[in-house]
Each structure stands twice: as C-alpha cells, then as structure tokens.
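Quick start: read one record
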Amino acid sequence: MQDLAQLLRNNPYPGRGIVVGKDRVYYFIMGRSINSRNRIFSLTEDGIRTEAHDPALLADPSLIIYHPVRTMGDALVVTNGDQTDTIVEKGSFREGCMAREFEPDAPNFTPRISAIVNADGSFEISILKHQENGRCLREFFAYEGADEGVGYFISTYQGDGDPLPTFAGEPIEVKMPEPDVVWKALNADNKVSLYANVGGEVTLFNKNLGD
C-alpha cells in the first residue's frame, strides 16, 4: 500500500485526482496554463463548483468550469468534469458514465474520472479513456467499502509529459492522510484547489485565496 502524501510529493502533475476512503473523499485540481490555474472551488447547495478567480483571465470555460461534487439522493457524486451533471440528471452513475467519453482536448484526450459514494459505504470509481482507434474505453471499479485509514486513488494522468500520459491500471490503494497533509503534498506550482469531505464536514483549499 502506498502513502498518498508521498505519492503526490513524487508526482509534479497528476492533473485532477479523486480519493475515496471509509470516512472521507478528496478531490483536487491542478493546472499548467493560466486558464487552468485561474480557478477556485466554491460551495453550492448540493456540493461545489469551480469558478474563475479572475473573470478577466478566463479564456475558455468549456473544460474547466463545472460542478465536481453533487449529491444524488443519499449518494455523493465526484468527478473531474461536467459528467457530474449527466450522472445526476440520469439518476444513475453507470448510465451517466456510459453516456460520456474522454475530453476532446487532443493530443491529451484527458480521461474523465468519476466516483459515487453510497450511504452504506460502498463506492464505485470510473475512468473513460481514449483509445488509439478513437473509441472510448469505459472502466468501472466497484468496492464494497474501505478499511479505516485506507483509500483508493485515481487521477487523470500518470505524471507530467507532452502529451500527458493517461492514468493506467486500477485505482491505487493508499494510506489516507489528513486534508492539510494532502494539500501540502501537492506540487506548489501546479496545485489549484482541494475539496475534502471528512465525515460529512467539507473543507475547501484554494491557492488563489491564499491557502
């Protein structure tokens, strides 16, 4: 089992990441461009949304402004894009993910990563990947729950690169640190925001607001 903080410290650019554990969920975003870095997380009635920190610097909102976290009944949906809305509108994690595909940002073709956490502690994680033939590979990983202090981590990329290498394999089993440790472990230049839900208590970290 890997230590999440150490894993993040050793990777300057995992992109966007979701971590699901027994009593907590983390979601973070990173950025290399001015447009991607010009963001904050803000609270909504049923979760959070991304917003431009400086609206004057917002060049293209299509892939960076969305609701990463929303509730769906007594479940929590967490994703790296506007597929959150698709899942909630369909009322089904699986149907929502089957209706979408990777992001149209060639040559990276950023995968869409998503998770749903159910009231009974079970959860599911999905990744939608681009294949060389242009088709979408949709992978689903279902968990009956997680042990105390253990989480499952998935990110959009394996690390930095040009083009960026897509995450490969199963979600990584990790030791779950506290939210402030995760925030400090993210690369100082590239990190943008972190959502932490610990036992239902939400904390937001935003680099652009001085966190």
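The mean pLDDT is 96.
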